[in-house]
Amino acid sequence: MWLQLALTGLGVAVIPLCIVFLSKETNKHRKLIAVTLTLTFELIMFGAFTRLTDSGLGCPDWPGCYGQANPLLSHEAIKAAEVAMPHGPVTTQKAWIEMVHRYLAMSVGVLICAQVLLAWMRKKTTDISPWLTTSALLCVCVQGAFGAWTVTLKLQPVIVTTHLLLGMGLLALLAAVLEQHSHQIKHVSSMAPNVAKALILPATFALILLFIQVALGGWVSTNYAALACQDYPLCHGQVVPTMDFEHGFSLWRQLGMTTNGEYLPFPALVAIHWLHRNFALLVIVVVSYVAWQAMRTPGFESLGNKLLLAIVLQFLIGVSTIFFSWPLLLAVLHNGGAAMLVLLLTMLNYRVRHASHALSSPI
């Protein structure tokens, strides 16, 4: 099974590798990073689709599916599980969704291994440090471990949320690696060093707040609290509804249960949802301010415009999921919007620091 899975992962990775090495771009290394970043973004969105379609246990073992490399070989076991639990988490469709997610994750791992190999081979011929790329490899290994625990620990909320955070962290690392190989800070010479430095603190603060919000969003999703409040901006017609933060934010517990093994009370779900939607307001204000400052800074106007557009769209999608009762497409797009914000803010943070360093260094 392990050999078959490895060959499948390599087979999926062949497609993006062909895109890289058959392209006309001269810098194949940078092209590989860009393709890996794109595939990681898609993997995050497909991971959201996997979670939101309740396919996380479509194959209740790991790394295979009922001890096989793909659902075709596990057909009889899947059908038996469906007969035993007609409304359970195992169906042929969900098994394929889960396994496709794993195949994509394996292909990302292969592409990052290729990046690390190239980075260390070129260490002596370039001034680019390979350690940032190596940290991405370490991140994907830890991410794989949490992916396994997601299944073996039966979708335990803290594990699933950490899995999401690590995915976003991997995306941020790959964005930083791409920026490291791009050196495309435009109009740097027209800026004073203090202009670039003035963006460092708010941009860093915005990225930290965004990751907290991603964690809160993951907590909402994995606890199935998306519909705990179905009105906006109020919640059950109140500014501050009845909530249970103690049970809602107890981290080490089973899905849908309290730490005492009782069913999670509804006010706990309300608390989870309410905190996520209200913390979003702080994130919107801070990210919008950072976008506005970037729009006023030479060389960062385009990135600032994209960041402002992304935060506006993310807010509209988030509100729409409430009014339209959390349709699947909007929910997946909401995850994609969070990933796009992580991507843009990481790029801004890297470029601001790069520009500040370049302008401050003596010529």
From TrEMBL:
The keyword Iron applies. It is a multi-pass membrane protein. One of its GO terms (molecular function) is oxidoreductase activity. It is found in: Membrane. The keyword Transmembrane applies. InterPro entries: COX15/CtaA_fam, COX15/CtaA_HemeA_synthase. It holds the Pfam family COX15-CtaA. GO terms for biological process: heme A biosynthetic process. The chain crosses the membrane at residues 6-23, 32-52, 103-120, 132-152, 158-178, 199-220, 274-295, 307-326, 332-350. Pathway: Porphyrin-containing compound metabolism. One of its GO terms (cellular component) is membrane. Keywords: Cell membrane, Disulfide bond, Heme biosynthesis, Iron, Membrane, Metal-binding, Oxidoreductase, Transmembrane, Transmembrane helix. It comes from the Bacteria. This is COX15/CtaA family protein.
